[in-house]
User: Fold these one by one.
Assistant:
Number 1:
Amino acid sequence: MVRELKLAKLNDEQMMRFHIKKKQLESAFRNDCETYAVVTRALLAKDESLQFGLKMALLENMEDLYKKMMQRVDDQLDALLVMA
């Protein structure tokens, strides 16, 4: 809700800059997730007994990555508002 209120304060140029940066952050997040998945699959191919522990660790790391990405999105939004 707070993010939406902040977004409403942006002018067209700021909104465009925000969306470009957000897409970059989302792309980096997707790439990180894909890297984690490849590494996890490689580890499981070597030792299937790691499955439960790796699955839990992977889920926790994905959640952490998502939170960091959203924090960066919010930081970018705040920076644009300061520039206004």
Number 2:
Amino acid sequence: MADMQERKIKDAQMRAQINQKLVETGERERLKELLRTRLVECGWRDQLKQYCKEVVKQKGLEHITVDDLVSEITPKGRALVPDNVKKELLQRIRTFLAQQSN
């Protein structure tokens, strides 16, 4: 059990270090822009926009908060991201990390 806890701590520390490096080099912003572009190109943004409209219509504008809407659409939004977009971003991050370790 302690090993699992240590692993979680190490993973969190590693993610924080990677994120810091991405931010420091400006790569995080470049990756975010790439993601935005790819999501628009594949129609993800339009799909999610339509889903938001459906949720608001279903629940009623007076009965839903922005936080409620975000909670409702986040799982679907993540699920709708195409695998090829996820793979491209992951590959870019791996390439970045490989370049940083040289």
